[in-house]
């Protein structure tokens, strides 16, 4: 509410209340001090003197008071600065968006005829790859920009040799499988195969054993192992033909 000092003439106002001259008493220097303005009519207000309660002449309302409206980020109210009478709605006059932190930016209704409302919102981020090192995270609305490490997805198999993972910025990291070989049993071929799986991604397949044969001094059998998995068994020597008829074609033992 405004406090105003008025020098007013001696006359009856439009409501018929007698208004005393601009000062209290004759020959004194004690002016009226008006406050407590109340809206009257359609576009006026009047106030009373805080000392003598004399009524002020009516005066036209203005629209110089700007008031925030709860949760309205589009407009604010314009009201009379004297009696607070509602006048109209007006669009906010926002400043440019400025970064607040790594998550949000903000802007304020500022300048002439502004209400000071602060609006805060999340960044609208776009990611640009800087190669294997990192990527740049940049807000398309404000001045926020920062370089951060890639945030990769899980590894996925590409083929029998490689798997890859991808960051939201588009950078793809590729590497060879980390393979694990395990003894595999099949109802048809028995232990003739092993399974091959990558310990990092979803790659899995089966394959026949890669065998090696060792002469361990046994006259009838030798040790047969897979070079990749845990498979082993003893197998009967297989003798050659002709000049090699006394030599095992697998382990080389002679008889």
Describe the structure.
- The chain has 255 residues and is mostly beta strands.
- Helix content is 0%, strand content 44%.
- It has strands at residues 4-6, 11-12, 18-19, 32-40, 44-49, 59-60, 65-67, 75-79, 86-91, 98-99, 104-108, 118-122, 125-129, 135-139, 145-148, 156-157, 162-166, 172-176, 179-186, 190-198, 204-208, 211-214, 221-226, 232-236.
- The strands form eight sheets. A four-stranded antiparallel sheet has the order 1-4-5-6, with no helix packed on it. A three-stranded antiparallel sheet has the order 7-8-9, with no helix packed on it.
- A hairpin with a 5-residue loop joins strand 13 (125-129) and strand 14.
- The chain starts with a strand and ends in a 19-residue tail after the last strand.
- Residues 1-21 have low confidence and may be disordered.
Set down the secondary structure blueprint.
Elements: E1 4-6, E2 11-12, E3 18-19, E4 32-40, E5 44-49, E6 59-60, E7 65-67, E8 75-79, E9 86-91, E10 98-99, E11 104-108, E12 118-122, E13 125-129, E14 135-139, E15 145-148, E16 156-157, E17 162-166, E18 172-176, E19 179-186, E20 190-198, E21 204-208, E22 211-214, E23 221-226, E24 232-236
Antiparallel strand pairs: 1-4, 2-3, 4-5, 5-6, 7-8, 8-9, 10-11, 11-12, 13-14, 14-15, 16-17, 17-18, 19-20, 20-21, 22-23, 23-24
């Amino acid at each position: 509410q405004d406090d105003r000092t008025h020098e007013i003439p001696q006359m009856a106002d439009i409501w018929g209340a007698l208004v005393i001259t601009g000062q209290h008493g004759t020959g004194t220097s004690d002016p009226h001090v008006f406050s407590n303005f109340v809206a009257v009519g359609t576009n006026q207000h009047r106030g009373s003197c805080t000392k003598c309660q004399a009524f002020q002449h009516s005066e036209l309302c203005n629209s110089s008071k700007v008031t925030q409206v709860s949760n309205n980020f589009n407009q604010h109210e314009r009201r009379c600065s004297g009696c607070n009478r509602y006048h109209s709605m007006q669009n906010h006059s926002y400043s440019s968006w400025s970064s607040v932190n790594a998550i949000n930016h903000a802007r304020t209704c500022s300048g002439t005829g502004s209400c000071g409302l602060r609006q805060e919102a999340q960044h609208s981020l776009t990611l640009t790859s800087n190669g294997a090192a990192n990527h740049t995270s940049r807000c398309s609305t404000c001045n926020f920009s920062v370089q951060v490490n890639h945030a990769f997805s899980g590894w996925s198999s590409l083929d029998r040799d490689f798997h890859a993972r991808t960051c939201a910025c588009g950078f793809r990291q590729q590497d060879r499988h980390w393979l694990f070989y395990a003894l595999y049993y099949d109802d048809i071929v028995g232990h003739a195969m092993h399974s091959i799986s990558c310990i990092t991604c979803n790659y899995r397949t089966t394959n026949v054993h890669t065998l090696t044969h060792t002469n361990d001094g046994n006259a009838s059998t030798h040790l047969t192992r897979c070079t990749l998995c845990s498979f082993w068994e003893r197998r009967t020597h297989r003798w050659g033909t002709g000049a090699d008829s006394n030599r095992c074609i697998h382990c080389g033992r002679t008889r």
